[in-house]
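Case study 2.
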Amino acid sequence: MPLTQALDRRLQKYITQSRRRDARSPYIFLALRKHDDDYEPLTRSGVHQLITTLTAQAGINKRVYPHLLRHSYATWALQQGIGPLQLAQILGHSSLAMIFNVYAHLSPQDAHAAAMSVFLVKDDDRR
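Prediction:
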């Protein structure tokens, strides 16, 4: 998925700052602690720990894990009107089956809102 210019700038700034910690590392996301005088790449368990810590700090009582963030994005994107084909491409799915099977939980209100949004488009927007 393409990055916005603002996100690209922020990511480049983060890379530059993290490289100051360990210019030899080819990794973007590094752990905070050194191991043998090098910063290690952030591990899978490190990502889980980070999400758990941030979830607690935010006061969220629900279990949050990395794949839930992906699932939440996909649900939100569908509710915002993104097409299933485009979402499947963004998520890297080879078919629409996954989108239709996993996200069938969207409510009838979501389907109604999507259908009604067609009528809310201004004539100027259709040209």
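The chain is about 55% helix and 10% strand.
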